[in-house]
Predict the 3D structure of the following.
Amino acid sequence: MNVQLDHVVIAVHDLDRVARRLNEWFNLRFSPYGRPFPGAVNRLAYTVFGFLELITVEDFLLITKTNLGRTLADFLREREGVFSTALETLDIWKVAETCRREGAPVSTPKRKKIGNGLSFWMSALSIKEPWLIHYDWTKITFGKPRIHTVRSKYPILHHVGLASENGVQLAEKYSKYFGLKSTSVETIPELNTFCIRLPMAQGEILIMSPESEGPILEFIRQKGEGFVSWGLVVDNVEETIAEIRNSGVKPIPLKNGGWVIGPQEAWGSFIFIEPPSSSTV
């Protein structure tokens, strides 16, 4: 496969509070402040594969100077949650051209440089769909761990999820765009939804469609289709759930041995906690 899950961007109001809570729950270590574009501030936490980016508005005057800044500000005026996600690709030009042939509104890959001096190639689709990224070192590191650690609780970024009223159609579109193939269609009875899994070289896209009244249908009604969840694989599910419960949050057990935290307690998105058997690594 030519793509893998690179990172998930979560827009929140209180950057430091969310970083502290995710550190308590998952032992995620967040970086100092970065400033990826005018008016925005972020903090990153790397997992063994992939990373999380927390982002918020720092300066409401500067944030209006870019289209992306205005989009972030508009998003946070309405809600918190998964703002975007990036798929790392071995050949961004080839994947972008495939997307274009399939009718996707994809931009021509361009080299970007952000506030910390990091540069990369990127190509964007619509704001509610994954975008593509290619680092200078991608061909060397693709499919390999980014962080080596002996911490048993250190998680792996497992998936980014999208809510769709027509999950089959969306899965077919992403199969054409990114060369992915569905490995399973399963039901999550606790959420009254069925999901289609699209594994990548690392991580997966999880497409969820409501079967009946329930949290996913409610999410679509209130916030529309688009990014709905992210998930982590943890070594010790029981220990992680105990830590989450100690903070006053009540995760929901799933029949596959995993757990999920609802958007009211997880900053606008569902957080899935997966057992090691769920890893696509």
